């Protein structure tokens, strides 16, 4: 009789590492953007676009790394990384700026994080 080994712990571990990677990249890129605005004559009006780009790139890379570590399942792993990062954003938002959490803002961020994570996961599988 053939026994199968569950890959759920490995997949969940990969998702966790993808979410942590996304968080670390977000913090690094945010620090660099803040430093650039502080030191240079860049206007603060670009921060909205910059924060969106930081979000997309960070979650994309997190989804990519998670799918590579999981050895495939890019769509599911990327989706879970995007979802995990979204919930992390909600928790951070509730702690620091609860008044800015609106349904519209949350809906848009959910779509962005899910798409970036999914695309990152799919790109990792395509590159394997």
From TrEMBL:
Stretches that traverse the bilayer: 20-40, 46-67, 74-96, 108-127
Keyword flag Isomerase: no
Residue ranges the record marks as coiled coil: none
Domain of life (superkingdom): Bacteria
Keyword Transmembrane helix found: yes
Entry-linked NCBIfam families: TIGR04086_membr
The protein's name: TIGR04086 family membrane protein
Organism annotation: Metallumcola ferriviriculae
Upper lineage: Bacteria, Bacillati, Bacillota, Clostridia, Neomoorellales
């Amino acid at each position: 009789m053939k026994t199968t080994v569950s890959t759920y712990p490995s997949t969940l571990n990969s998702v966790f590492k993808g979410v942590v990677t996304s968080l670390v990249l977000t913090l690094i890129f945010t620090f660099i953007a803040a430093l650039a605005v502080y030191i240079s004559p860049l206007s603060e009006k670009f921060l909205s676009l910059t924060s969106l780009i930081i979000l997309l790139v960070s979650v994309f890379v997190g989804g990519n790394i998670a799918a590579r570590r999981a050895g495939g399942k890019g769509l599911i792993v990327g989706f879970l990384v995007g979802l995990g990062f979204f919930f992390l954003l909600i928790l951070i938002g509730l702690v620091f700026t609860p008044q800015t959490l609106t349904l519209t803002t949350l809906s848009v961020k959910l779509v962005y994080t899910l798409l970036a994570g999914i695309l990152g996961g799919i790109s990792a599988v395509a590159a394997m």
